Amino acid sequence: MKKAEIPKETVNRLPLYLRCLNRILLRGHKTISSSELANLVSMGPAKIRKDLSYFGKFGTRGVGYEVKPLIARIREILNLDKNWTLALVGVGNVGSALLSYPGFNRGCFKFELIFDDDPEIIGKEISGKKVHDSSEISDLVKKSSIKIGIIAVPNEKAYDVADQLVRGGISGIINFAPVYLDTPDGVKVYQIDLSTELSSLTYHLVS
User: Cβ neighbours of residue 114 under 8 Å, at least 6 residues apart?
Assistant: First the structure.
């Protein structure tokens, strides 16, 4: 099945399944049923079976899913079976928090380049990486063949940063600035806006 035909919601749930399966594996479990996995992710087992069916046949009736092979297959589907280098622009509060998060450099995601436009920190090392001048984004990203960029700059700077990343060959952007980025076809942008998520949450909290 083509990627375009697979619901976005299904793809978004795969990392959740993967996280739970990794925990189950650490506990020594070799198999898990769709009902058991459903309990862990607070979801119906039928939805899990349908999500996985988009990618092939999984599990055995009466036995369930073999945990290790299912983890390997989901990682393959999500392209997590390869290493991805990242370019981070902005090392303020958000950027610094991302750099110090241990989940990145331990897994398949690794910060390769970091940028800022503050003269006081350009040239210094943060979390073992030299801070480059933001004016060098396009050239250095292109030389390093990086495909994922993370924007953690003030609103008014996000547009220019996105343009530079795209010129450098970036094809995927995580944007923490609460502004809409208009990028060319073929460049995926994921918006991380905590205030928007909180507004959605509060809507559901009041009946």
Answer: 87, 88, 89, 91, 95, 99, 126, 129, 130, 131, 132
